[in-house]
Amino acid sequence: MNKIIEIKNLKKAFGQNVVLKDINLDIYQGEVLTIIGSSGSGKSTLLRCMNLLENPSEGEIIFEGVNLIDQSTNINLLRTKMGMVFQNFNLFNHLNVLDNCLLAPLKVLHQPYKEAKDFAIRKLESVGMSQFLFSNPMALSGGQKQRVAIARALAMNPDILLFDEPTSALDPEMVGEVLEVMKALAQTGMTMVVVTHEMDFAKAVSSRVVFMDDGVILETGTPDELFFNPQEERTKQFLKRVKK
Question: Rounded to whole angstroms, how far apart are CA atoms 16 and 180?
Fold first, then answer.
């Protein structure tokens, strides 16, 4: 498999607080990598470093052969290939659902309107939101907003999707509908990196699972390896605590 992202000796500090400590991780085309761990373990910071929403203190992030840290790199161009789905949706409430999905393809990719519109509608259909094209996001449930946010990311036709705890802001009954969309997306072969607290989702969909603790990657493995035969004592403690 081709590496789509290579992370080498990555460190991130906020002042004296070192959040990421010498992270090394490869992400391969077509895989679903889930990142689990306690709150404060560095999961979201690692994800946000992948598209430079957070600037690393040290190390390299190589995306499709290009070092994102290099001063000569056009990060905005590369970000067009990296879709991001946030925990709080980040939709524009002054735009309807369709226009939320059209904004970046028109303004950033400069696509022809009809081409962008047809593609965006197909992506909204794929997440079950085609009947809400002209709805205001404020009229939608949390689960519907997150499905629109996924369609908006897909409307850019990215090479990878990054999900930052996409269900943590949802009411429990809304979680399932978003996870089903993500499972269907994984089956299409989309490369996905998912920071999540949903262990059942990680077991069912992941190609690999990364367990982070105190700013380091403590253990990595397939879902079977990590969930049913963890090697590290800290991993065992974490999984025992999160089991229902």
Answer: 40
Q: Decide: 35 and 210 in contact? Cβ < 8 Å.
A: yes
- How far apart, in whole angstroms, are the C-alpha atoms of residue 19 and residue 12? 6
The C-alpha angle 55, 57, 59, rounded to 5 degrees, equals: 100
Q: Answer positive or negative: Cα dihedral of 73, 76, 81, 86.
A: positive
- pLDDT tens per residue, range 191-207: 999 999 999 999 999 99
Query: Can you read off the two tokens belonging to residue 104?
Result: 């970046």
CA distance linking residue 44 with residue 86, whole number of Å: 10
Q: Is 59 exposed, middle or buried (0-12, 13-18, 19+ CB in 10 A)?
A: middle
H or E stretch covering 60: strand 58-63
* Residue 198 falls in which region: left (phi positive, over 0), alpha (psi -120 to 50) or beta: beta
A 10 A CB-CB count for 35 gives 27
Spatial separation of the C-alpha atoms in residues 181 and 233, rounded to whole Å: 34
Model-level pTM? 0.94
**How far apart are the two ends of the chain, measured CA to CA in Å?**
35
Whose tokens are 């022809």? That residue is: 112
Half-sphere exposure of 177 (CA within 13 A, CB side): 18
Q: Which residues of 189-202 are buried (b: 16+ CB within 10 A; e: fewer)?
A: ebbbbbbbebbebb
